[in-house]
Design a protein that fits this description.
By secondary structure, the chain is an alpha/beta fold. The chain has one domain: TIM Barrel (Alpha-Beta Barrel). The chain has 11 helices and 13 strands. The strands form 3 sheets. An 8-stranded parallel beta barrel has the order 3-4-7-8-9-10-12-13. Strands 5-6-11 form a 3-stranded antiparallel beta sheet, with no helix packed on it. Strands 1-2 form a two-stranded antiparallel ribbon. α7 links the parallel β9 and β10. α8 packs parallel to α9. It is globular, with a radius of gyration of 19 Å.
């Protein structure tokens, strides 16, 4: 059905279409989807100590203000991440700020952390408890004088209601944010986060979302800091400011972060680097270009323990998890695999 509706939906500008999708989910206007592979042992796993039905999550960016996470669980996602949420309400960057690159199965966005603010989101989640594992992605306000402190505000606000908290240092649309990839700044941030969590006496898992545009040397530095500070997970990766050379759509030079299919190869490469550095000690969540069973399969082979998607759902529709599981199951059966975790890191170099 979505393939028939897509041409109509794509007549709206991307941000309007997105807002309509959120409203449809909030008011249960999206039909429940029959999933013949629900609770299949082939997909079951445990993420940060909580059992989940499958390893396919929804990335931050879709449900920015935590308005539709429970309906999203009903679409089949094994876990959902909301945000990025900033301490104070902010509009983000001027519109237009989202662009579809249909020929490339991609998006470019320069939203800039549009958020209703931590207090509002906190109240919403507490009044509507999540029915599954909910990750909360936090970041600083655009006009803050202390980005590091904004992360600590996010920790204080959400540590007792989040399944895990993501420290987002990788959006290309907030000035100086990616500077936290610098070794000294990154170490200071992670130390401050750990100290704050100790003060809060909180055991909520902390993970970090990184940029795909880092060097291999930076990857090594980041891995050492994460291992030394017992951070539980990493998301690889956010959107890229690069990889425009082979794009076909006329919007390819728009400023912002590129997501979707063009990010897949770079994401898989970086996942494999971190997989070899971590040696199983830190959970890897792979993001970038997932829209099929094969693309999820390749993420696992590269070393991802779990995967997330967003852009893939824009092009494939709300039944994408069911589609991925069906295709992935066929691939796993052909390999005589009983659970997807058996193939993690089995990429042949």
């Amino acid at each position: 059905m979505f393939s028939k509706l897509r041409s109509l939906i794509f007549k709206f500008d991307p941000e309007t279409a997105h807002n309509l999708a959120i409203k449809s989910l909030k008011f249960n206007l999206v039909s429940n989807i029959f999933d013949e592979n629900k609770n299949d042992p082939m997909f079951q796993a445990s993420l940060f100590g909580k059992k989940i039905e499958n390893p396919i999550g929804l990335a931050a960016g879709f449900d920015k203000d935590a308005e539709a996470y429970n309906p999203l669980f009903k679409l089949g996602f094994g876990f959902v991440e909301v945000g990025t949420i900033t301490p104070l309400k902010q509009f983000g960057n001027p519109k237009p700020r989202v662009f579809r690159l249909e020929e490339d199965h991609a998006l470019i966005n320069r939203l800039g952390f549009n958020s209703s603010g931590a207090k509002d989101v906190n109240s919403r989640i507490r009044s509507n408890l999540p029915s599954g594992l909910l990750g909360i992605n936090i970041g600083p306000n655009k006009n803050t004088t202390n980005q590091l402190n904004d992360y600590l505000i996010g920790l204080r606000t959400f540590h007792d209601i989040a399944g895990y908290i993501t420290i987002n240092i990788s959006s290309p649309n907030t000035e100086n944010l990616r500077n936290f990839h610098d070794q000294i700044k990154f170490e200071k941030l992670i130390n401050s986060v750990n100290q704050e969590m100790e003060k809060l006496k909180s055991n909520t898992p902390i993970i970090v979302k990184i940029s795909p545009d880092i060097s291999d040397e930076q990857a090594t530095q980041i891995s050492e800091i994460l291992l030394n500070n017992k951070i539980e997970g990493i998301i690889i990766s956010n959107t890229t400011e690069r990889n425009r050379e082979k794009l076909h759509n006329a919007s390819k030079h728009q400023k912002g972060g590129l997501s979707g299919k063009p990010l897949e190869e770079r994401s898989n490469h970086l996942i494999n680097i971190f997989y070899n550095l971590f040696k199983g000690k830190i959970t890897i969540i792979g993001v970038g270009g997932i829209d099929s069973g094969k693309s999820a399969y390749n993420k696992f082979l590269s070393g991802a323990n779990f995967v997330q998607l967003y852009t893939g759902m824009i092009y494939q529709g709300p039944n994408i998890v069911i589609k991925i599981k069906k295709e992935l199951k066929e691939l796993l059966i052909n390999e005589n695999v009983k659970n997807f975790q058996e193939i993690i890191g089995k990429k042949k170099n």
